[in-house]
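Entry type: protein chain
Record version: 2
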Amino acid sequence: MSMFENIGIAGLGLLGGSIALSVKELGLSKRISGFTRSPKTLERAISLGAVDDGLLNFEEFIKDVDFVVLSAPISANIELARIIGRQKPSLLFTDVGSTKKEIVKMVEDFFPSGHRFVGSHPMAGSEKKGIDQANPFLFKGKTVIITPVSNCSPSTIETIEDFWNKIGAKTVRMDADTHDDLCAYTSHLPHLVAFLLVSVFSEKMDKPNASACIGAGFRDTTRIAASDQEIWSEIFLSNSENILNAIEKFKEHLNKIEDMIEKKDAQSLKNMIEKIRKIRSTI
């Protein structure tokens, strides 16, 4: 049974396209409309059956939809949310950005009390990008963090949670500050480290047979270094304070292990690695 008459997906990349395909697969909306500024992307999304129709103008796009998922980069999502606030402040909508503090604060300040926005962050994705990588089962069994906003209408949180649950995800509620702090360690810092590992190795790539020394460990650890530069530069800057704190903490741990190696302190190294191994086995 349909939840909505017409869902609008704003941003038709990997996440937006996957949401659209999930909605289509499960029949959660009678119609799915897409918004993007790229005519080619819109044409491709329609040809793949991800959306039924679409527009290149956001003001026109939101006129006939009853629920919008903002799936563009973080700064674009915030600007699109402002347009909703000016033109259709009672519209039900969420975003799928990887940071939450900025958009939550903007909505709290910009929208009237009783608005219908709740932030969402699906802990799902890929280093791949684009509508052609979209997958209707991307969210099945995954966690979506829900970041409620203080002045939203009471039923909004339940409606957004119900939407994610219906496409197979589990939802967890969390305030925006806590979300951004934790994700700096579990997502943003790991991506930064992966980028830097590739950067460091690039200085050795001209050595004969350098590629022969690349094994599963390097490939697995750096897979996410193939991620989109626009998305990740925005994430790093949007969550800069938390990421800088995480970098400082990482430096502390790096300095400790550097000291152990310099001193050839085998026992301390073994103890540290074993401690970390046990922690990792519980994750």
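Comment: The mean pLDDT is 95.
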